[in-house]
Each structure stands twice: as structure tokens, then as C-alpha cells.
Amino acid sequence: MAKAAPIRESVTSINIDGSRNFLRPADVSGKFSLWRRISGALLILFYILMPWIPINGYPAIFFDIANRRFHLFGYTLAAQDMWMAFFFITGLGFTLFLVTALFGRLWCGWACPQTVFMEHVYRRVERLFEGDALKQRKLDKVSWAEPEKLIRRGGKLFVFAILSLVITNVFLAYFVSVPQLWGYILDGPLEHWDSFLFIVFSTVILFFNFTWFREQLCIFICPYGRLQSALIDDDTLVIGYDDKRGEPRGPPKREGVGDCIACNRCVQVCPTGIDIRQGLQIECIGCANCIDACNTVMDKLGRPRGLVRYDSLNGLAGKARRIIRPRLFAYLALLLLGAGVMTVAASRLKPGSMSLVRMTGAPYVVDHEGVRNQFMVRLINKRNEPVTYTLSIASEAPGMELAGFDEPLTLAPMAEEQRPLVLRQPRANYTGEANVTLKVLGEPGSFELTREVHFLGPDPKYISATPAAEAPAP
Ligand code: SF4
Ligand code: SF4
User: Fold this and answer.
1) Residue closest to 100 by CA, chosen among 285, 241, 240
2) Which ligand approaches the C-alpha of residue 276 most closely?
3) How high is the pLDDT of residue 176?
4) What are the chain's domains?
5) CB-based pocket (< 6 A), ligand 1
6) pLDDT for the residue 30
7) Closest residue (by CA) to atom 6 of ligand 2?
């Protein structure tokens, strides 16, 4: 049994008997629709171009999972730099908190890929094949045996499948780069069956989402919509209906009614099927379709625009709106803290990295020459050119020598290598355990990487300059 009209107690996309009410929102034009189309087109261009635009020899955004490297606008992050992702992700989170506290669900209506692709790509194609909302509903009732349905809906589904495949490939290019993706396509699916399965799976998911699931992703799955009620307050800019001006609603010529003529145009254009006149609701994605729809109606009636508008709940209630509120300072402080750490960390990012681990087994060895500690050194070249590394001891360590890494090591672009390293101190110089600083000089660029290691050994009183017999390791 279908719903007669949207109600606050349950979502419009589910009928009273639990079946799906497939929404067919009407098209709308107006100031906000135009700006949303422009911003949507620019965002799609951004999504497509990022894997193509090279910066410092790599795509502007390239998550090179296979080699555990991430290239972001000219910066290369190795797996060791991943701690920065914490500040990046929390920074994004607090930016979203701040934007939501100020402007409500601006992200959902204007920039979320789900909305951008649904409204500006799939919905456009749907209207191209099936016509406006009324014609789409009529087509719903036509049998699949009819050529019209086969051509219109079948054609639409075919184009949807192609679009889903293209979007999946664009998405995959962020992980394997465009040349590699092109190589996969030329090699055929059997050569790279894991990537092929990923493409098939993702294409099916996208096709299902944009063909059938649609607004339900925003209503039931996306956690951000659920957070909305915690993030906004009565001073947040939201899309709302001015009921003081609009009510009581009724036909334009009736005496004593407000400005709302109960035309239901704001409901017809809503992609989540709600009635904005019932107040702010969790299903509202802030797309502003209802503003444009109502403004068009008001223009035709010669009444002022803004019966449905961007305003705060306080503003709609006729009260003053406070823009500066304590929660904004809290979100801003957390955002600046994260951004500050990120900026300092990014400015200190080195074009290479060095890690040192002590070799398993005895922590030190004492022989007739002196005390030895053994390590495994791992060097990574994060540059797009060969780099030569030279290792030396940078701290005061009398007589200490390096073995195993005494020659400069040249690493190919983005290569990494592990080498054993032995630190050896003669008996005559050994005065006990000590911290030793190792320095690697990278050329070209003359950058330095340093690491401190703890040189282990026995109590010096057990070490004589000339051994009578070799002391055993502990
Ligand atoms: S579009 Fe405007 S006038 Fe028409 S029902 Fe909605 S709020 Fe009322
Ligand atoms: S109520 Fe208005 S702004 Fe909210 S989703 Fe519906 S049409 Fe978009």
C-alpha cells in the first residue's frame, strides 16, 4: 500500500506495507540548480583529471597500494609516513564538523560524489531516455514486452552500466595509475583477473546503487546524515520553510491564507521525497531543489521569493541568528591543531627514509678485536630519480667502525633495499654501552637522515685491551 504523502514518522521511499516506493523527483531549474550543475561538472572534471595530471613525475593523486606509497600533489608518503593520515583524516573530519555547524549539509547537497553522480549524471541520462517524472511513472506501468519500454528503459540501463564501468575505471586509476590501467585493459582480463574481478564487483555495486538504491544510501547507510542532529544547532544555516509566512496554506485567491498555495512543487522535486514544510528532517540532503521550485512558484504569483530558503531555525522563527558560537571555536581549535601538525610534518618530510632494527640472536658479540652489534638497515628512495646514500657515524664514538655499509649505495627511483650493518668498537676504546647516531647523506639534494641506536656490550671491567680468551656473548 503506497503512502498518500510524505510523513515525518517514516521515510517516503518505503511504503506503509514495507515495499519500496521508487521516487521519481521532478526536474527543476533556478539559481541554485544552475550553480549546483556548474559545481557538479567541475567536481566530475576534478575526479577524472586527478589521475592524469602529473606532479613531480607521479599522478596528482595516486594511492600506490602495491608499493605502499601514496602520492599527493607532489608529496610522496611511504608506509612509514602513514601516521600523518591520522591528522589528515581527523582534519577532514573537523573541517566537515565546522562546515556543518555553519552551513548544514552543504557537503551532501553540493559535493558528495553520491549526489554529484546521481543528480548530474545518472538522473540526466534517465530524463534523456524516459522523459520527465510523469512520463517515467507512466513507463513504470508499461510491460517489458512493449518496444517502447525495451528501448527507453533498456537503453537507459545499458548506458547506466557503461557509466558505472567508466566510473569504476576512473576510481581504479587512483590505485594503479592510468598507464598501468591501460596496460591491464590491453592485456585482457585473464592476465589481471584480480583487478578484473574488482572492476566487475565495483561496476555491479555502482550500477545497483545508482539504478535502484539511490537516496536510500543517504538515508540508511551514510553515517554523516545521522551525525547531523548532533552537529547543527538553531543558528546553523539550513534549508527551511517559513511557516509564519506560508501558513495557513491554501489556494492563492482564498481569503486569510498564507503565501504557500499548497502546490506541492517543493515535494515533487525533492530527491529524498520529503516535505520541507514539515520542518528539518534527517532525510534532507540540502540540495536546494525545493528553494528553486518554490521561488519559481512565487515568481509566477508575483510574491517575494524565499518562502523556502537558506536560513537558520532561529532566522525562520523570526529571531536573530548568531554566527559566532562556542562550538565553532572548539571545532576550529581542533582543526587548527591537526592542520598545524600536518603542516609541520609535511615541511619536514624527507625524500627518503631509513629504519634500523637489531638483528635477531645475540644482542652483541665480543671477540678478540672488540665489541660488535649487528643491525639491519632499510633505506627507501621516495624520489623519482636515483639517489646515492652514504652512511657514517655522526656522534662521538672513539674507534667505532662500520662494516657492511661502508660503500655508498645507489637506489633506483622509488626503490628500497635492506642491508646488514655491523658496528664495531675496539677493546681499547670500549667504555660501556652508549647511544650512537648514524647519519645517511642522500645525493643529489644533500639531505640527511639520522637514527640513534643503542650500542650494547658487557660491563667494561670484563673487557681488557688484549684478550686472554674470547668472552662469550650473554
Ligand atoms: S512550492 Fe512553495 S508554495 Fe508550493 S507547496 Fe511548496 S512551499 Fe508551498
Ligand atoms: S527538502 Fe529540499 S533541500 Fe532537502 S532534500 Fe528535499 S529538495 Fe533537497
Assistant:
1) 285
2) 2
3) 87
4) 352-462 (2.60.40.10)
5) 241, 246, 260-266, 277, 293-294, 297, 307-308
6) 96
7) 270
